[in-house]
Specification:
The protein has about 350 residues and is of the alpha+beta class. It has a single domain (about 15-345), classed as 4-Layer Sandwich (Double-stranded beta-helix). About 30% of the residues lie in helices and about 20% in strands. The protein is built from 9 helices and 15 strands. A 7-stranded mixed beta sheet has the order 1-2-3-13-5-15-4, covered by helices on one side. The protein has a 3-stranded antiparallel beta sheet with strand order 12-6-14. It has a 3-stranded antiparallel beta sheet with strand order 8-7-11. Strand 2, helix 3 and strand 3 (about 85) form a beta-alpha-beta unit. It binds fe (ii) ion (FE2). The site of fe (ii) ion (FE2) has 4 residues, from loops.
Length: about 350
């Protein structure tokens, strides 16, 4: 009997077929209980650039390859608070150290379909030449990494070594802020719901290309509003790539809810930050409370990078969770106080420099 291409692919994948089936969930919450002031981490920070008051921060002075255990814990907590944190000039962070950093935060995820190195199956190469722009390119639409898994990603660590001469930014959207923007009635309604996330897009890709799989392509049901276990804040957790339907509502209601939330994720600039990559830049984000997308505007330039993805806990919703909006009141008050102090100092300096008024 003649072996077909499909036979060859299937026999070739047998040896590796269970790699992704070994994926498991985190048994501890990295970053929970870290020093709220993050003194160890900030001891090495030379400059902090907040992209907006609530979301996204660039830290200078930190060498990710040399973080202590304590600094990694504080960084995990800081990423959960800021959603996404950016670093420049991380030449020293090779893929093994990238994996080591991720493994401090939880089990590293082996992707069921994205090709990977057999010795380090958790390391994914994102190469624009290997993933042509198509409807199967999940990186170019808003999503949260591997949300179809029973234990989806807590953190993703992405480093680009080759970047386009222009274009190719990545954008993130703040799921905490999105939740906080909803009316209390809609918040309450969504809090009672779960949604089914599927690997359908990868199943289709596998069917069309015959590409090898490394384990089961999972489907999972997760809360629509998810509690971040580090911050304890609520965030919207559905995305246009992997969320197929809202459970236990009609098909048209599900469509409406997903379209509405998907529109908020994609179209509201006030919830978003955008990162311009440089060679050896690194972005680390918390997938539990953010969504992200590549900006597909750079081809034919080449982009190549490495991603390591950390499996988190089984997603849950705790009705007693707090919100970023509540926590932000403290931040906002501090910003107002700082502004007022600066304005007062300026007024006093101006008054001191003026010639004395004569009656
Ligand atoms: Fe992604």
């Amino acid at each position: 009997m003649t072996r077909t291409d499909a036979d060859i692919i299937l026999s070739g994948s047998e040896a590796n077929a269970t790699l992704a089936d070994r994926n498991t969930h985190a048994t501890r919450v990295a970053g929970k209980g870290a020093d709220p002031e993050k003194k160890a981490l900030f001891a090495s920070v030379t400059k902090r650039i907040d992209y907006s008051p609530k979301f996204g921060t660039e830290l200078h002075g930190v060498k990710l390859a040399e973080l202590s255990e304590q600094q990694s814990e504080e960084l995990a907590a800081f990423i959960a608070e800021r959603g996404v944190v950016f670093f420049r000039n991380q030449e020293d962070l090779d893929y093994k150290q990238q994996s080591k950093l991720g493994s401090r935060w939880g089990p590293l995820h082996v992707h069921p379909l994205v090709p990977h190195n057999q010795e380090n199956p958790e390391v994914i190469v994102l190469d624009s030449r290997l993933s042509p722009q198509s409807r199967f390119n999940t990186n170019d639409t808003w999503h949260s990494d591997i949300s179809f898994e029973p234990a989806p990603a807590s953190f993703s660590i992405l480093k680009f070594e080759t970047i386009p001469e222009s274009g190719g930014d990545t954008a993130w959207s703040n799921g905490y802020d999105l939740y906080d923007s909803l009316s209390p009635n809609l918040q309450k309604f969504l809090e009672g719901l779960t949604a089914t996330h599927t690997s359908e897009i990868f199943r289709t890709l596998q069917r069309v290309t015959g590409r090898q799989t490394f384990g089961k392509l999972n489907d999972s049901s997760h809360p629509v509003i998810r509690t971040n276990p580090i911050t304890g804040w609520k965030a919207v957790y559905v995305n246009p790539v992997f969320t197929r339907e809202i459970d236990n509502v009609t098909e048209s209601e599900s469509k409406w809810i997903l379209e509405y939330l998907g529109d908020l994720i994609a179209k509201r600039l006030q919830y978003q930050v955008r990162f311009r990559w440089e060679p050896h830049s690194v972005a680390i984000w918390d997938n539990r409370s953010t969504h992200h997308t590549g900006v597909p505007d750079f081809r034919p330039y080449h982009r190549r990078g490495i991603r390591v993805t950390v499996s988190g806990e089984i997603p849950y919703f705790d009705p007693n969770s707090g919100t970023q909006a509540e926590a932000y009141k403290v931040t906002a008050a501090a910003i107002v106080a700082k502004q007022e102090a600066a304005e007062k100092a300026k007024t006093e300096a101006n008054a001191g420099g003026q010639p004395a008024k004569t009656a």
